[in-house]
Each structure stands twice: as C-alpha cells, then as structure tokens.
Amino acid sequence: MDCDKCGKPAKVHLTQLVGGKVKKVALCNECAADSGVTDPTGFALADLLLGGGDQGVTSVVPRPPGRSRACPECGFTLDDLKRVRRFGCGTCYEAFREEVKDMVRGMHKGESHCGKVPDGLMEIRQRKLRLEELRERLDQAITAENYEEAAGLRDEIRQIEDSMAKSETPS
Amino acid sequence: MMRFSTLLKHPADWMIGKGADNAIVLTSRIRLARNLAGIPFPGWAKKDQRQQVLEELCPVIEGFACMKDGFSKSLDSLSSVQKQVMVERHLISREHAARGEGSGVVIDRGQAFAVMMNEEDHLRMQAIRPGLDLAAAHEMIDAFDDEVADAVEYAFDPELGYLTTCPTNLGTGMRASAMLHLPALVLSDQIGQVLQAVGKIGLAVRGIFGEGTESLGNLFQISNQSTLGESEATILRRLERVIGQVAKHERNARGKLLEDDPDMVCDKIGRAYGVLRHAWIIESKEALNHLSLIRLGGDLGFFPEETVATCDELLMEIQPAHLQIQGGRKLSPEERDGIRAEIIRSRLQTLEPPDIGRINKSEGDDDDSPDLGIA
After folding, report:
1. What does B295-331 look like in DSSP terms, one character per residue?
2. Cross-chain residue pair B202–A120, CB shorter than 8 Å
3. pLDDT digits (tens, 9 = 90+) for A48-87
4. pTM of the prediction?
5. pLDDT in tens, B330-350
6. CA dist., res. A109 & res. A115, Å (int)
7. A170 in contact with B at a CB cutoff of 8 Å?
8. Do A121 and B149 touch (CB under 8 A)?
9. Residues of B in contact with A103 (CB under 8 A)
10. By CA distance, what is B165's nearest residue in A?
C-alpha cells in the first residue's frame, strides 16, 4: 500500500472508528512523523490528515460543570460515587445516606450492623449519654431549687468530663 | 528491624503447615478493613493526607509487642520484585503492590500478622493460621484491632458499622477465608457441584492461581461475601461449617478414588513424580498441577508425610518473583522455566519413588484403613 499523502510505500497504518464507520489511513514514515500521528493524544486523525471532517464528528459537547451534591467534609460528589461506586471519607456515608441504602440493599445479608463496636467508641458514647442525662437532671434540680442534689450532680458531671479529657490526650 | 532477606529466607509456620493438620485446608485467614475518622480514604486523600495517616498509624502498629523486631517498610522503598514476592506469599495484596509513596506495610517476625497502610482503606490487617482455624485467626486479629482502636479513632457508624472505601466491606469490615487443596474432588469431577453449593449459600470461591475461573494446582479459596447484617461470630461459624464440609467431601473423595481406581491414582502420582524429578524446563502451570499430585501422594501415604510441607514451600518458591529473586536478575520466561525445574529437582532429589506397594496392600485391608471405606 502507498502513502495517502505522498505515494511512497506506507509504513504506518491507522484505523479509526468515526461515526460508526471505519476509516483507514496509510502513511510513509516521514509523513507520519510530519503529521504527528505518533502523538497518543491526537484524535480524529483521518479528518486531521485528509481534511475530511464530514458532519463535525470531532465536536464533543462538554457537559456543563456538575452541580452534583457533595460531601461537606471532603468534597466527594454524588457523581463521583455513581462513577466509582466507592466513597471519599467516613462523612460521605452521612451525606449520601439515602444512596447508601440503595447500594447496600442486596449487597449484604442485612442492612444494619450487628458486629463489633470499637471499645473506646462504646465507652465514649455511653459517657456522652450519661452526661446528657446528668445535665438534664441538673437543670431540673436547679429549676426545682433543689441545690443539694444539683451540687452532687455537678460534681458527677465534672468527674466524667475530667476523665473524658484525660482519655482524649493519651500520654 | 527485620530485613527483607530475612523475611524471604524464613517461610512462616503457616506457609508450611507447622503445628496443624493442613492436608486439605492449608490456611485460615482473617482480614479487617478499618479507616480513621475525619480524614479522606486513601483513594480520595491528597498526598499529604495519606502521609499524615501513615505517620499516625505506623508508630502505633510498629509499637505493638507482637511487632517487635518485625518488618516495616514504606512501599516506595521496596522494588517491584520485592513487592511481588510479598504478594506471592499473601502478605500484601496485588493492589497494594502497585502502590508507592504514602503506603506502608508492617509484618511481624513470625509473619502471622500483616498490616497494610493506605491500601484501599487506611488500614487492612490480617492474621493467618495454618489449617482450618478461623476462630483462632479471628481472636488474634480482634485483639490487635482493639489495641489499634485504643490509639486512634476509627470511622464508625452505629448503623453501617466500620466505614470502608468500598460499600462491599461495610459492617464488620471482615473478610475471612481459607485456602483448600481439593485434588480428589477435581479428579472425580465433583468439584463443580461442591463449589456451586458453596456459592449458593453466599460464599465466594475462587482459584488461588490462574485467571478467572481456572484453578491451577487444585487450590481454592473460600471466603465470606457479606460483611453487613451479621456478627463476626455468625459469619465465622457458617464459614467454618461449610469449609469443614468441603474438606470432608475431599477426604471421602480421596478414599473413594483409591478404592475405585487405584491404578489411575498410582499412574497420576507416578507420572507427576517422574516429570518433576526429571524435567529440565517446566512452565508454572505444569509444575503446579504436578506438585498438587505429589502433595496428594504425601497425604495418601505414597510419600513420607513431610512431603506435604516440601510441596507447600515449592508452591511459593516456583512463582515468578521468587524465581527472579533467586536468579538475582530479571529473567525471561524461558530462563524462569529452567530455574523452576532446577529448584524442583533439587528439592525432590531425596524423595523416593512413590510407595505403590503399600497402597495396593492396604487397598483390600479395610481394618487398617477405616478412613478409606467411606462410600
């Protein structure tokens, strides 16, 4: 086969699918180098080289910049999630809770966790619950002008707060 | 700190089945996926965030008593061959081997624990035991996980459990698996049926070597697929039960093969012995399949018992990256086939020919071999 440009023996053969039709181009080494076909980023080569360009096959309409919902913590978007089926950070699971439900359904034996809970987290959660309860009782005691009970509650709250502060800054 | 050469020289106890019955179930492994709260998962994190995770986790993991004198490296400080060797030993995943800066690996001296940092999740930790003992492996990694949880804050949600990059790992973040050697089920054409039954109860089965559904060396891995909605104990109980049943089927099939078609068994094992003892050039596929038969022979009494462990070591040593390290340079496939044959020949040099007489004698002697009488 001869070069489509200059007629010398062709060494480079390009095949490209354009608008569902196969286009073939043959080039000699020099013409191939001249036209920069070795550049892997080049596209629609047949049009480029032979000036064909029927019905504007090269025009790609860029999608409008996505206004897809994003995770407030890490910026991972719903589009990202749909594309890679993976999450950006722990908070994403909060941000896309509804989508998570749909994804998880049928993926596992169940939809809510029944396994291990990290030790520390359990304690922290329990302490927090206890604190909430104590504070509520403290408010009630103060409203009821039951200062003796309020003092006791205040001491207990301080004790828990102290121990929490300590465990948050390990030596 | 342990060096790579030390890691390479001493295969872990679990790799050669020390202290456990590993004739059918070679190893039990538990892997936990964990992430730190408040920082993006590795795939979405920026370079400095990944570095930050590594700097937070590495000293914690290295500091554990079980990691004393262990192996700890950043992935960018390992060559691709070294990483590949670790993949072949099941110490890191194929995905992890593709990573570099910002990812790390810590392995204890006995290689029972292996921790990957910044793989798909911030933390992937595994414990491996020889034989079928998922409960023991889980106990080990569970205690390890508790220690890590004392030092860092995990990304956890009461509803979804441990939060992972991929939702397929949510909940317990636990993947439990066992590696099984099932030559008799393959030889007797029952393997498809058995694996289909396992698949039906929601467990995953795949070959250890080979692409897709192909299994080389008759080695299979069975693991849980679901990680959410059941406790660790429930998942492990089901797996142990199913794997135990598959192992029993294999045991029965071995007995039945010897009873129904002893000539075929003798012929297969004898040919495998002949080829491996005398081949000068051998491809991976052929080697794995013959080694599988020698391993079966070791279990059935054709060869001394310790032959099984020799085969397990060879299964690792004849893989491409191991050969490359052995050869000390990049090898062409042809060169690899030559070195592979050489290693096998030298390892099997002292192995006596299969003891066919013993098998034939015990064939008609039901009292001597009650195991083999199962119909």
Report:
1. HHHHHHTSS-TTHHHHHHHHHHHTSHHHHHHHHTS--
2. no
3. 444 443 333 333 333 345 567 899 999 999 999 999 999 9
4. 0.76
5. 899 999 999 999 999 999 999
6. 13
7. yes
8. yes
9. 167
10. A87
